UniProtKB/TrEMBL annotation:
The chain crosses the membrane at residues 34-55, 70-91, 103-127, 133-152, 164-188. It comes from Albidovulum denitrificans. The keyword Chloroplast does not apply. Residues 11-180 form the Yip1 domain. This is Yip1-like protein.
Amino acid sequence: MAGPAATILIQTLRDPQATARWLIAQDVPMSVRWMAALLAAILSMIGLMLAVLISPETEPSIFTALADPWFGLPVQVVSILLLSVVVTVAGRVQGGQGRFADALLLVSWLELVMAIAQALQLVALVILPPLSALISMASLVLFLWLMVHFTAALHGIAALGRVLLALVAGFVAVVVLVAIVAGILGLVPQPTGP
């Protein structure tokens, strides 16, 4: 499989596991993997900033906070790293031998694919807002589908249900851990009185 990014994108949608194996087989340098992760984070950040500009919120929210590059970009990068760790560990507990470096590559490619879905959602938000909600739901399904297949390909696991359960458990563990750390650091908003 070779060719422009569009060909790889189409192949990703048709056969995500074959695409994942092909990406891993390219054996790209670690520096390229880090650059791909950073590019994915930047594109996601730009998409979020545009979404806030197109549809500004009257009250500050987590989305407006994430649209601030000084806060949002580090959060995007850490999210990609955490997701790569979850993909690595989720496969390892199922007996897989996938490496973090390959997980980082696959998660970065997944985030780049999702940036395209985010761009479609932004266009729909301007042209036909109800369609934007449908694209958002379809993007979530696409994300989960690709994540399961990429993880299965990375670790050589055939049972997709087991992979899904391991990923869900990993996500829950990360959310709990982040909530605990945020509470310790005082980043969780305190409830206000009546």
